[in-house]
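Person: I keep going back and forth on a fold encoding question. Show me how you would write down a chain together with its backbone fold. Please set it down just below, with no commentary around it:
Helper:
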Amino acid sequence: MSQAAPQLFNRRRLPLIITGALVAAVLGGFFLFASLYTEVLWFDQMGYLEVLLTTWGGSVAMFLIGFVTMFIPVWLSITMAYRFRPVYAKLSNELDRYRQIIDPIRRVAMLGIPALLALFSGLGAANTWPQFLLWMNRAPFGTVDPEFGLDVGFYIFELPVYSSVISYVSTILVISALGAAATGFLYGSISITGREVRISRTMRVQLSILGVLYFAVQGVNLWLQQYEALVSASSGFLAFGAGFHRGQRDNSCPRHHGRHRDPRGAVVPHHRHHWSLAFGHCGNSPVHRVWSGPGAGVPRLDSAVPG
């Protein structure tokens, strides 16, 4: 009787739980649809519906790219580590206990863990759509830097995208290696006995390939850093030098103190961004040129107080 009562109670609660979940889903979907439809009507009334659709399309596209590019490598790495595991590996009692717990949900875990990581990756990538949209619609500035002879547009539109891609690929490779190592440790491809660490041949090959790819990506990153050094403010033992720097405050530069006047006679706070190419300090620089930031096609709101 004591066992039959909980089972009967659970059977009675199950329809109530399902009904509550369906009602919550319907209400959530209704409010979400109302919010999205209101935005569509408002942007359409203002004549900027294309802007809204571009924003949504860019976010969805970047989410899908981030999800797929994270899911496939991590899932493939875990699957290969499991498929090429040693069949007759001797495991410790603790690992054998953990494996007995995981084996019933192994297939779900091998899909769920990469999917969860891919979900976070996609959500993070969805916020980067403006950067990639600027890269897709990039245009030359017509001015080249004196160090590498590259157009200024390369530093504004292309270099940030390349750096982001390098960082993202590095993250994928590290997570894939960790997933393979964890699977190998759980199923005997990696065993630690005292001070002795044994790694199976297939696991060594898999981790070596991931390591080679990671260091190759880092090599590309080091190559790009020569250009990043030109777009960042000088630091360390170099107190001055050629560099595109954004919003850098220099005590010797009056225009970075508080507010300054623009050509229209308005006093503008110092947080207004400019891209500048300077040789030497601001006051002693023989050449000092200022470009407005990448504001082509992007409205910029600056608080200006009439002088």
